[in-house]
Design goal:
By secondary structure, the protein is of the alpha+beta class. The chain is built from 15 helices and nine strands. The chain has three domains: 15-262, Rhopdopsin 7-helix transmembrane proteins (Up-down Bundle), CATH 1.20.1070; 264-349, Helix Hairpins; 350-507, Histidine kinase-like ATPase, C-terminal domain (Heat Shock Protein 90, 2-Layer Sandwich). The chain is 64% helix and 10% strand. The strands form three sheets. A five-stranded mixed sheet has the order 4-6-7-9-8.
């Protein structure tokens, strides 16, 4: 299996190298074509991007029923009109036998098209933050109207600003426009990056590379003085690379790995469903195993008392009563944790932080745990910094402390010690609950905070855990922006440490 994976990766790397070499060879060939006839080079370079632009439209338009987000549909419509304007730009380029009444058309069309492309990218990525979908046909008509207005300002009304003067080079309007276009693309990159998790990693990287090379292309077109100059050549090379990456992100990905593009949300939903099923199975396992045992004890001891009450001595009756009480407490703790955990999964528990005195909070928890500690002759110690005030949800933190204290007592031998301490750490306070108990193995330390693993160990007096308490501790701590960790040595003891925010004077 490992050999197969290794060979697959090796084959993929080799394929990438071959494609990169072919691309480099294509650019070198284009360079020599430009030396022979620049007009032919320009036409090839522009047709490369035009074909990709139209292909993006065809793919997006015909896949619009299946695309989860309107972003790619919008891009497809935009690139149809970008490709169309680039086609007109190609036909009006100096040396072409069309539209020879002005030398301004090609550069005017270039600026107008790049504005359309950059603004469209910025708008398209805004759809990533919303589930809103627009009707495709009206969007297409809006783009067509804008395209018609652009062509009208250039060819009919002739009011589009002059962008290039033969013998002098670019006008200030052209140069400033290129910088503005670059700025808009930077904004698009920022918006894309904020939604990087909405994309397959390769799709995101390809889009990012495409935008980066688009900026390089625009910058290359800010200082040429001849439409056949070297910077013009470099700019078209960057444009070719930019369109190659956007082709990879949409067309190649959509055809070769459609689930990474067309059905990414469906894929993520499927993954989430699998995780939910694993969680459900784990939950049922906890209920079936951990709820059954205390009920069996409850039924067994209560049944023995009921049938043999008159024959049992007082000490045995006290032992049975104590066992019934312990089983009832265990059932209560389990049901309480299960209820709280289920509410966290459905949003039924809200996070309402308020100022809380840590000492008073721990004193209350110590009172609740006093009986359990006394039964095992375990000493509870407090080592707190003076007057520590937290900004925390009292119910959540009560649950965290009670679960950690309960576990510490369960897994500490008779005559042991459980110590609770605190230490300021910037905007947080670090709270530690340390015991002199049996400890946890390194392998089990990795499992105890996660639902998809089962880690249940009997206490030193045969106590059973609830199986979900530490998962709640992790969840509630992280809701406060804190962390939780454990340091443990088998046979020596364990130390659970969690952080909570300190109170800063406002609730």
């Amino acid at each position: 299996m490992n050999l197969t994976i290794h060979n697959t990766k090796k084959s993929s790397a080799l394929k990438s190298v071959i494609i990169a070499l072919m691309g480099l060879a294509f650019l070198i060939l284009l360079y020599f074509v430009s030396r022979f006839n620049y007009l032919i080079f320009h036409n090839i370079a522009e047709m490369f991007s035009i074909v990709i632009a139209f292909s993006i439209f065809l793919f997006a338009w015909n896949s619009r029923r299946y695309l989860d987000n309107f972003c790619f549909i919008f891009l497809g419509i935009a690139y149809f009109h970008v490709g169309f304007l680039d086609l007109i730009h190609t036909l009006t380029y100096e040396g072409m036998p069309f539209f020879q009444d002005s030398s301004h058309y090609a550069t005017q069309l270039w600026i107008a098209t790049r504005f359309m492309e950059s603004i469209s990218l910025l708008i398209a990525f805004s759809f990533l933050s919303t589930e809103r979908r627009l009707s495709s046909l009206p969007v297409f008509l809006v783009f067509s109207t804008v395209t018609a207005i652009i062509l009208g300002t250039i060819f009919y009304w002739k009011i589009f600003p002059v962008t290039f003067i033969n013998g002098k080079g670019l006008t200030p309007f052209k140069v400033i426009s290129e910088y503005v276009i670059c700025f808009i693309i930077v904004l698009a990159i920022i918006r894309l990056y904020r939604h990087r998790l909405d994309f397959d990693k390769k799709v995101f990287n390809y889009l990012l590379y495409s935008l980066f090379f688009t900026i390089l292309a625009e910058l290359s077109f800010t200082f040429y003085i001849s439409m056949y100059g070297f910077s013009n050549l470099v700019g078209h090379f960057f444009k070719i690379i930019s369109f190659k990456f956007i082709y990879e992100s949409i067309i190649a990905t959509g055809l070769n790995r459609p689930y990474d593009l067309l059905f990414r949300e469906l894929k993520e939903s499927e993954k989430g469903l699998k995780e939910a099923n694993l969680t459900k199975d784990r939950l049922f396992s906890i209920i079936a195993h951990d709820l059954k045992n205390p009920f069996m004890s409850l039924i067994g001891f209560s049944g023995a008392l009921m049938e043999h009450y008159d024959k049992l001595d007082e000490e045995t009756k006290k032992d049975f009563t104590r066992d019934i009480h312990d089983s009832a407490e265990q059932i209560h703790d389990l049901l309480d944790n299960l209820l709280k955990w289920s509410l966290t999964q459905t949003g039924g528990i809200s996070h309402n932080p308020k100022s809380v005195n840590l000492f008073l909070l721990l004193d209350e928890c110590f009172s609740l745990m006093h009986r359990s500690a006394c039964q095992k002759n375990i000493e509870l110690k407090l080592d707190l910094e003076n007057h520590t005030i937290l900004m925390a949800d009292v119910n959540m933190i009560n649950t965290v402390i009670r679960n950690l204290l309960s576990n510490a007592i369960k897994f500490t031998e008779k005559g042991g010690t459980v110590t609770v301490s605190s230490k300021a750490k910037g905007d947080f306070v670090e709270i530690s609950i340390a015991d002199t108990g049996v400890g946890i193995s390194h392998e089990d330390v990795e499992k105890i905070f996660f639902m998809d693993t089962r880690h249940l160990t009997m206490g030193t007096a045969r106590e059973r855990g609830t199986g979900i308490g530490l998962i709640l501790c992790k969840d509630f701590t992280e809701r406060h922006g804190g962390t939780i960790r454990v340091d443990s040595t088998p046979g020596v003891g364990s130390k659970f440490t969690f952080t909570l925010p300190v109170y800063k004077g406002t609730d």
